[in-house]
Design goal:
This protein has 601 residues and is an alpha/beta fold. It is built from 23 helices and nine strands. The longest helix is centred in the middle third of the chain and has 33 residues.
Length: 601
């Protein structure tokens, strides 16, 4: 039976959430979205030009990215306030990916990179892997942000000081930085003055905004002020480098230049940037959703990022993601739907057409000042301090990720951070705790303490932990120690597995070998407290059949006083019969006595 028009319409609305919002749109919502869009555009114009400078391409490519990616991202975003486009972190990663290319190759390389990033992100969406991003530690993101901020400041110092970049693209960033700083005697004081003035004006406007609760576009106004000064005093003739001519035209359609040698060279970076972009966008979307209470579709958000980068690659854009700064401004400015992003992109496009010639005198040191100020604000110092002082695990992840961003590569530092997260987490997760239990003369089953007499006929143990392959060595060690009690005359071993989780084949084989060894010693092993998932595993492996079904006691949510553990202990005393030791409590002789047993663990 063919789908009804309504079902097709609902599918379309799920695919393009921006159009779904039109069903409840109003003039009031349009007013809020328009005001937010105008506010975001005022920030987007200088930011886009600055981020293009970071990525190593002319400023107009940043503006193209702020137009195309913002539009496409807004249409498909699950988040109603997220703004896509060029971002600080992604621009640094792009620079790191293409730094080895010549000036002539760099522009086609970043456009191809956008295509590859979009394909990876779309592939993640089609495989429905978007939700897996939640398993990446937030400490990795904090460390990446810190590393990216440090890298950004170091990279922009040459522009702030008026120095010429030294070294070749094949050199490591730190080597190029050192070579550039070795020419510190060649600094341009006029350039420094312009950069410092830009920072000072932006800080003053920020104070005004806070003091009088205004929403002045501090970065844009700061750049207008210093650009006017450069033009009025002819500072561009005195060594102050300026942006130069920006074509007053919108991005045109064009297929990326695909060269397989270039594809192979960018493959690793594209995967890293794709993952980084998703993490950045999803983290920002979640942060806003915590305030708006919006329910997000993570897979849809991944699709949005992928489509935005794919569309961007067709209109001469470099890779982008969800912007921390512009998304926050969009939310605080009152954006209600995704259309605020579309309005923002339209205003940026209008600005390019009408005002591009006036951008000629924007000083590069002014953009550097804006970027250094952005780097300072990029790091949430309270969150950083929280992660550094909370646990060694979090502190280690933050520091290692940040150091790898600066010392190795910013686009791979996230992968390094994720890898280190697992390396440091696995030993913690692989901890298996074993507790010996005892049955007192009063027939109370509880944790054994040092003063309790030791029973040399029946031993009862509770195992707790994640029983995956990483825990196998420790589990084998614990069971080996338990097996040594056979020398003392122990005839029955009860293993309580109620708190054993996620048992895999490796740990199951450890149990299997232990049980086989005990059977060879004529010792009975009883398993109790097994939850349904563990029962299914031991049945499918054949362990239950080899052990004997009557020796497996399944945990049941019955609320009864006695449990599967008590039942197993009763059965253990039936097995030994009269072969008790001096420390054995008098055991129950009939089923009717079961209510006299108590469980205190």
């Amino acid at each position: 039976m063919p789908d009804s028009p309504n079902s097709w319409r609902e599918r379309f609305f799920r695919l393009v959430p921006a159009f779904d919002s039109l069903r409840t749109y109003s003039w009031g919502v349009l007013g809020l979205d328009t005001m937010a869009g105008l506010t975001v555009a005022a920030v987007a114009v200088p930011q886009a030009m600055a981020y293009a400078q970071i990525a190593g391409v002319p400023p107009q490519y940043g503006l193209y990215t702020a137009i195309v990616m913002t539009t496409v991202g807004a249409l498909f975003d699950s988040s109603k306030q997220l703004i896509n486009g060029p971002t600080n972190a992604i621009s640094i990663a792009v620079l790191s990916a293409v730094v080895g290319f010549s000036e002539a190759e760099r522009i086609p390389a970043v456009i191809l990179l956008a295509l590859m990033v979009g394909l990876v992100q779309t592939g993640i969406t089609l495989l429905r892997l978007g939700d897996l991003t939640r398993y990446i530690s937030h400490a990795v993101i904090v460390g990446f942000t810190l590393g990216a901020a440090v890298l950004l400041v170091l990279d922009q110092l040459k522009n702030l000081l008026g120095l010429t970049a030294q070294g070749s693209g094949e050199d490591h960033f730190l080597k190029r930085f050192w070579l550039t700083m070795s020419h510190i005697g060649e600094v341009s004081y006029a350039t420094i003055s312009v950069g410092v003035a830009t920072i000072a004006i932006a800080l003053a406007l920020h104070w005004v905004n806070l003091r009088w609760r205004l929403r002045l576009p501090e970065f844009l106004l700061a750049l207008i002020c210093v650009a006017t000064a450069v033009w009025g005093w002819g500072l561009d003739q005195q060594g102050v480098k300026v942006v130069g001519t920006i074509p007053p035209e919108l991005p045109s359609f064009g297929l990326p230049e695909i060269e397989w040698s270039r594809v192979r060279e960018l493959a690793g970076s594209s995967a890293a940037i794709a993952l980084l972009g998703l993490l950045e966008a999803i983290a920002m979307a979640k942060a806003i959703a915590n305030h708006t209470r919006q329910k997000l579709d993570m897979n849809q958000q991944c699709l949005s990022e992928g489509l935005a980068n794919l569309a961007g690659s067709l209109f001469h854009c470099f890779p982008g993601s969800g912007s921390l700064t512009r998304s926050t401004i969009n939310h605080l400015a009152g954006a209600t739907t995704q259309w605020s992003g579309v309005i923002s992109a339209a205003v940026v496009a209008l600005t390019v057409v009408l005002f591009a010639p006036y951008a000629y005198y924007i000083p590069r040191s002014g953009l550097a000042g804006i970027l250094i100020l952005s780097a300072w604000r990029l790091v949430d110092r309270r969150e950083l301090a929280y992660h550094l002082r909370t646990t060694r695990y979090d502190a280690s992840i933050v520091v290692l990720t940040a150091l790898s961003a600066v010392a190795i590569s910013v686009e791979f530092c996230v992968m390094i951070g994720v890898f280190m997260s697992f390396v440091l987490y696995v030993p913690q997760a692989a901890r298996v705790h074993i507790t010996e239990l005892t049955l007192t003369p009063e027939r109370v089953l509880r944790e054994r303490i040092a003063t309790d007499p030791v029973c040399n006929r029946i031993r009862i143990y509770s195992l707790e932990g994640e029983l995956f392959f990483g825990a196998a060595p420790e589990l084998e060690e614990h069971l080996g120690a338990v097996g040594e009690t056979v020398k003392l005359g122990v005839r029955v071993i009860v293993l309580r597995l109620k708190r054993a989780r996620n048992t895999d084949a490796v740990c199951l084989s450890v149990f299997d070998r232990f049980i086989t060894r005990m059977q060879a010693e004529n010792v009975t092993v009883l398993l109790c407290g097994l939850r349904p998932d563990l029962v299914k595993v031991i049945e499918s492996s054949g362990l239950r059949r080899r052990l004997g079904p009557e020796r497996v006691f399944v945990f049941e949510e019955t609320g009864a006083i006695w449990s599967s553990t008590l039942e197993a202990v009763r059965f253990a005393y039936e097995i030994i019969g009269q072969n008790v030791c001096g420390n054995c409590p008098r055991h129950a002789k009939s089923l009717e006595e079961k209510d006299g047993w108590y469980f205190m663990i």
